Amino acid sequence: MDKLLSNVKIEVPEGLFIKNPESSELGKKIVEHSIILIDEIGFENFNFKKLGKLISSNESSIYRYFESKHKLLIYLSSWYWRWLEYQLVIETFSIRNLEEKLVKAIEVVTRKTKEDKNFSHINEVLLNQIIINENSKSYLTKSVDSENKEGYFSPYKRVVRRLAEIITEYNSNYEYPLSLASSITEGALHQQYMKQHFTSITNCNEEVTPTKFYTHLILNALSNEK
Q1: How many other C-beta atoms can be found within 10 angstroms of the C-beta atom of residue 88?
Q2: Which stretches in the chain have pLDDT values below 50?
């Protein structure tokens, strides 16, 4: 998988940026350190002035790449979901046993992220933590419908649809594959958050992972529907 991913270019919707940050060292630096800073202080406290100070660059130079911190957050979210989609495709395409394929798909979508050396300016572990903490802030806005029409959330939706297709392959009689797939995708983030902050209302811990929980839940639910 690592060898295949080394040749992959992660592409996000073009409307999210003014200038593609992948096109220059400064752009990559903006992305790299925005991940570090958002993880450190949270999205609410993050702004381009603080980012500019961190990278020793003018605030105006960041605005040449992103028109707002909201667009930057959607960019980071889109990058993450595209990266996750590549993993989902690569790790499941050769599996012929449908139950094994479903279990692997659930694992990819719900597991703890490990750093991917193929993208040196992106710390996937920190980015995953940002997605756990901040992802909903990218779409829980008044502008969500217009941004959705622009395709800003297509990487996220593609992950859900691919997972739904694998669910349907496993059990073609199940009537709600998209709802189930979106529940797994979003629920895994929620359980990771609960595991870190509200341990008294989740069974997930160091031994019981969200992957273990969702694998148990989904296999039982789909088996009963066959």
Answers
A1: 21
A2: 1-5
